[in-house]
Structure formats: C-alpha cells, structure tokens
Amino acid sequence: MNRMPLLLTGIFLTFFSAWLGLVAMPYIHLGRFKPQVDDVTREETPPPFSGEALQGATIYAANGCIYCHSQQVRPLEAGADLERGWGARRTVARDYMRDKVAYFGTSRTGPDLSNIGARQPSAEWHYQHLYQPQVVSKGSIMPAFKFLFEKRRISGQPSADAIKMQPPDEAEPGWEIVPTREGKQLVAYLLSLKRSTYPLPEAPEETPAK
Amino acid sequence: MAALAEAQPAKPSLADSIDPSTTESLKYKAERAAIDRSLRGPVLCFIGGAIFWLLLGSLFALIASIKMNVPGFLGDSAFLTFGRVRPAHLNAVGYGWGAQIAMAVGLWLMARLCRIEVRHGGLLYMAFGLFNAGVMIGILAILGGQGTSVEWLEFPTYAALVVFAGFALVAIWAVIMFRFRQPGHVYVSQWYILAAFFWFPWLYATANMVIFILPVQAAVQGPVNWWYGHNALGLFFTPIALATAYYMIPKVIGRPVHSYYLSILGFWSLAFFYSWNGMHHLIGGPFPAWLISASVVASIMMVVPVITTGINHHFTMVGHFNALRWSPTLRFTVFGAMCYTLSSLQGSSMAIRSVNQVTHFTHYTIGHAHLGLYGFFTMIMFGAIYYIVPRLVEWEWPSASLIRWHFWLSAIGVSAMFIVLSIGGLFQGFALEDPKISFLTSTNYANAFLWMRSISGIALTAAHIIFASSFALILLHAGVVRRRPTLLDRPA
Q: What are the structural domains, with CATH classification, of chain A?
C-alpha cells in the first residue's frame, strides 16, 4: 500500500469511531445519574456511603478482593445469580453512582458481594471470616487477612472491639485480637454493600421460579 | 539475516519488490548492518528489560497459582497476599515483558523496513529508563497496597504517567522513522506497527483519564475498563505480533507473502472490528444492552480478519513446513500464528451470550487469556528475538539444545495450561449456573485442575530461565565461533 493519507486517515477513523461509541457515549449516558428520592420520607436510593465505608473501598482495592469476587448481579435470563440469592434483582448502572471506583469484577472464585451487607449483616462474622476463613467456612480457599488485625497484650480491661476467634487461631490468655483501622473500614464497606436490595423504576425486583 | 538467506538461497522473488530488505546485494547488506548498529544499544536494553520482567512475572505467577491450591502459602505478609501478587504478575508480564518486547521488536522492524538508521538513539535510552522505572514503581505500589484493582490498569496514576512517558517516546520515534523512510513500497508489517504505536497511547491515556482523573460516576468505568483491556490486546499486542509474523515467515522461508489483497483485507477488518470489541466482557452486567451488543457483533465479526490472516500465513508456508524442523524463529512464529487463529475463534465464541453465561466468571477466561497473550503473542516475540539478537550482537546463539528446550517447555507448558484451565473453568461454570450445587463445590471443581495449572506454570518458568540463560550467553559471546545461524536440525 502506498497511499499514505488513506492509511493514516483509516487508522485514525476506525479507532475514533469506536472511541466515540464505546467511550464518549457511555460517558454521556452513564456518568450523570441522580438518586431516586422517596416522595414521603425524602430518602435517597441508592444511599450514600459513609466516609468510613468509602475508605474501606480502597482497602478492598488494595488487597485485591476483586480477583475472586464480583459485584454485579445478572438478570434472571442471563445467569443463576438471583437463584443463588445474590440479590433481589439485577444490578443496573445507577446502583453504582455513589462509588468512586466500582469493582464489577470478572471472577467468581468467591461469591458475588453486591449485597453482602444484607446477606451477612454481622460485623463480628466478617471479622472472624477475614481472620480465619477456613475455620468459618470449611473448605474455603479465601486467604486469611490476619494483617488487618492486631494481636496485643491486654492491659487492664479487654478492648470493646476485641474479636473472639475460633481455635486454632484464638488469642492466648492475656492477649486479644482487634481489627486495625483498615480492617474496620473494610468491614464498614462490606456491610454497606446492599446494591440491589431495593427496587428502582428501571429495575423492579425479580423472583426466581423455584 | 544474510546468514539465514545463505542457508536458504532465495532467488529474486516478489518479496524483493515488496520488501526491499530481502534483496541480497552487498550494498543492502552494509546498509542493514549500519541500521542494526544504530539500534543495537536501545533494542538490546529493551529486550533485556523485558526478559527481566518475564522472569519476575513468572515468579509472581507461581506464587499466586500455588496460593490457589494452598491458601496459607506465604499467607501472613500483606505484600504477598493473593490479591496483590496476582495483579503484580499481570502487570509485570503485560507491561514489563509484553509492552516492552513489543516496543523492541516494533522499533527494530520499523527501522529495517524503513531502511534508515536511528538518529539520536540516546532518547531511546531515556524511554527505556522511564518505562522500566514506571513499571517498577507500579509493581512496588501494587505490592505495597496502592494498586487500583481496575484490571489491566492497576498502576496508580503516578506510575502510569511515567510508563506513558516512556512509551510515548518510543511511539514518536517509530513515527519519525516512518516519516524519514526510504522511498518505495510500504510493507504490511509497517501498517500494523504504525497503527499500534498510534492506537496504544490513545487507549492508555483515555482509560487512565476517564477512570482515575476525570470526576465521573463509576458506571462509566466498566465500559472504559474493558474497552481498554480488550483493545490493549487487540490493537497493540496483536498488530505488533502480526507485523512480526508477516515479516518473519516470508523472511525465513525466502518467499513472498501469499496474497497482498488478503493482507489488506486482514488489516482493515482488524482495525474496523477489533476497535469495537470489549463490551462483551460485560455481558449480563449493569450496562445498557446496545453497548454490549455492539461488541458482541464486533467480536463475532473478528472471524473475518482472523481467517483472512490465517489463510494468508498458511498459504505462504505451504510447501515449506519442513523448515519448521531447523529454524527456531519459524518454529516459534508458526506456533504463535496457529494460536492466533485458535484463540481468536475461541474469543468470538465466548462473546456468544449462551457460552458467556457459563464461562464469564471462571478460569476458562484465564485459559483464553494465556492462549492469546502467551501462545500467540509471546511465542511470536520469542521467535523474533531469536532472529534479531544475533544480528545485533554479531554472534550466533551458543546452544541449539537450549533453544529446543525452551521451545518444547513453552509449547507444552502453555498448551497444558490452556487445556486444564479450560476444562476446570467449564466444570466451575456449569456448577455455578446450577443453583442446586453449593457455591464451594464450584470452587472445588476448578481447584482440582488448578494443581495442574501450577505444574504447567513451573514448565513455563523453566522455559524462561533457559531462555534468559541463552540470552546472557549470546551477550557474552559464549561458545564457538559459528559462521552460520544456530539451527535446530540440519536443513533438508
């Protein structure tokens, strides 16, 4: 090929057209959602994250939970997600309007976490699970995140936020295990994940046929 | 090259009129030697840097893989938790090895095909320094807990900027070389390299801007993430590897590319369809249907460029398959070209919604990624290195058996990895889609196969260590003086 202007224009235009379609269009269509406001209670859905939960999202990112967990629920016709009880409906773009970075995920080595805050509302459970996943959930291959905890000598009263772990990882007498600041932020984030537990006009609840 | 052509005497063929550098005259020989000399330092640096990251990336891969079998392995340190080692692997091999070797090979091919010496090579050393510093900062950031967890874009913005600066310098240099090219026909490899060096900075800059810098709601990040993730493969790694195959196959067997028109069709259909790929990674996800459908269609249409290129390469090879016995470059390149056809057709099938439903969140996808990035891209790059380095260091590869070991360990390793990940992924996917089967059963199904993945990973790591030793030996001019290229077998 020796017609250089044709080559260069073609290289530019093919790419530019896709850039318009797959970057600019989503930018316009998916970047400016407003929350749904309840007429009576003035409550907003999706609700905003607390500051601590937003911090927790960065801990989620830092430790790569995304390489095993997704945060998206597929509709009934596109997968068994709802039948597995991972949400009351599919997730839609507006469910992510409060996130700074959304962790949609591509892997399900572990279960989907879109609605883990509703499915598993106990902070205590999450701490125990993060510290000793194989004990809490037999046969799990989730890695332990012991570095999100601190084991320290009890001086005076035991701390209120000490977590009771199961054998073989329980603290020796006179010692206690408490989550670090990062650990607490992470669990605050997990508890706030209730992405598709409420209906939105564009996404009514779906019930899987039993 | 001169030496290889001696082994395969080529009469002046159509290739000579298409690609001036095939003509074996003394004048051209001197010209090529001068070009190689002008590029020697920078290209060898890039190749060396790439091999360094390949080794480190293999180590990360092994650690991550073993962690899937034994969750407690190296479990207590935050630096080496699975969720950090895995992206460290991806970025070390994706950028440190993949992008860097693509730059090295792209630059060398561009200079050879444009028939000009590189001027101000010093700037290329700077690009080398910037790029590797950027990758190093990025990997350390990931291990230190500053990774972004946006797949393929895990480097925090400060590292990404340095990587980008290094890459942009190389891209600009390639374009400048093209502008100063000697008059004559522009060969198909040049189209691909030019396009790749133009597309990739645009892709990388857009993705980092939209996802991390512009304040925009998070739903936009999904499409942009996968537009980038898929097109880094489709519009950068793929064109560079195809450019290499289009150069090496005719070069080694001494015969022109089968059809010029198929080359044109292959190039434009790739540019047109590949750029619209990516959204099929979001099938079932929280995004508008039109967006996903656009990529599903484009992905299936990829059959056109893939079949076209496959036929073109195949018919170029016809009658010369015995050359696979003796030429290291050809052996790696043809293996890679075959994996291109296979992985692309598999990729198109994975964009079909009913297939995707099962495979989407499983190890099947990871098998596909390795078939593409390793079986296809990396093997072709290995082939290119076996061709280029002797010309740069003016020494032949010291040991044919090292090359043979490298080839077989890589070829068998990646095939085995692909097979076990695919089968394990299908088991996992069908279990996930059946709500009567407990979740952990799906994980366990996959894990039965992940053991074998670790073993195939050990084979690949061994291959890389052998390859790196070969590279070190040729740099040291080890072994006996050879007047002819190191061949795997005596040419028939």
A: 36-192 (1.10.760.10)
